[in-house]
Amino acid sequence: MRFELAVAARYLKARRRQAVVGIVTVISVTGVAAGVAALIIALAITNGMRRDLEDKLVDSSAHIELLQADKMGIKEWRPLMERLEKVPHVVAASPGLWEQVLVARGARDGGALVLGVVPDDERRVSHLLDHATPGAIAALEPVPEGASASAGLPPIVLGSDLADTVGAAVGDSVMLISPQGDLTPLGEIPKYVRFKVAGTYHTGFYQYDSQMGFMRLADAQRLFDEPDLLSVIGLRVDDPDNAPAIAKTVEQAAGDGYMTTNWTEDNRELFKALRLEQVVTFIVIGLIVMVAALNILIALTMMVMEKTRDIAVMMSFGVEPGQIRRIFLLQGLLISVIGTAIGLVLGYLASWAGSHYHIPLSPDVYSIDTLPFAPRLIDGVIVSAVSIGVSLLATLYPSTTAAKVLPAEALRYE
Questions:
Q1: Could you tell me if 63 and 236 are in contact, meaning their C-beta atoms sit under 8 angstroms apart?
Q2: Residue numbers in the chain where pLDDT is lower than 50
Q3: Pair type for strands 232-237 and 90-105
Q4: Residue 263 burial (CB < 10 Å; 0-12/13-18/19+)?
Q5: Are 111 and 102 in contact (CB under 8 A)?
Q6: Residue-wise burial string across 21-34, b where 16 or more C-beta atoms lie within 10 A, e elsewhere
Q7: What are phi and psi for residue 114, nearest 5 degrees?
């Protein structure tokens, strides 16, 4: 193999009698490098999208939610929470009462899912409120029993994008319009209640920042006319990937009449779409490598035609057809390895630069505000294997053709 590799390397570096052969060889190396670099960058982006969405969903929402199957609300929820917190693998529980409302300020308004919470419990289950402005969490602390609520409007914490939509800043008042209104002879009239914006939060996840708000649990129960009633109990577990199995245990501990949802079920279609996008991206951009492989085939075919006399001379000196075949196989392998190595370096450098300098995105379109990059070593291994494998397939025809050269025919007119 040392002889074949030395000849292959010499042919690759030698000056060409026909300049077009050298040009096609350079194009082949460039094509392989471009294809590999594009694949590494594309896979880094899709991995980053999946990682960021998973991290934000796991950190910003409960892993498991317990609801009443008849959707009438959860009564006697305090002893139920204590029982659920003792379920194996459950690390925290938080009460919640949510309802869809309209948030308005002046002529501007926006729909929101408002959740009544106990801040200390909610922060053990979800880290969404950790991104709130200073003083927001303190404003949501429940009023101690026996103490009257302080004068003024009840507090609410809005997502930053929702606050921008309605034109509200910290300290402003907003009107909440709840469908759970009063029944009159003219029908049910929505309830209008003013709240003071005690703070905002920003997670970078558009669905949360533009469509959610938080208030005190007691204020939510008064707003929605649900005295001492919950719509959901959120649970955090020690292993988010095992949430579906733990959810079944939670249902058994809760008893009849309860059902659970978990973060993997709620976002199954999203992650399925991301996996499909990754496969399609690999196939589409992999076509660049296919085109580069065709260039390798053309370059080696032209090389065989140019080196027919040299091949005949070597065979006359006793070089076997198998060795001739390996010379051109190794030449194609060298082109592929050089192009793949250059592509890997460019791809990982570009991915590092993209993650370091934060390319902005439109959050209302992509759900996140920066383009994420998460390059993985395993992707480089897979891309390299595919690139080199496809390139080797392209060398089979020209190398076989070279091995079939007949010395007498090739040297007849020399």
A1: yes
A2: none
A3: antiparallel
A4: buried
A5: yes
A6: bbebbebbbebbbb
A7: -100, 130
